[in-house]
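Sample pair:
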Amino acid sequence: MNKYSELLSLVTDLKDDFEKFYDKGNGAAGTRIRKGLQDIAAFAKATRVEVQEIKNNK
């Protein structure tokens, strides 16, 4: 479940920036959101490859 915890951490770390951007109009928070989402996408891609490799080796 370490991968799940990692993903959950990536998502929850963005909570404050989402509130700042959407509720308060903070533009810098939008930049941090975009970077965070890019990190999540990279994590998802790497995890997807890892899951496929584990699946193929069983």
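The chain has a mean pLDDT of 96.
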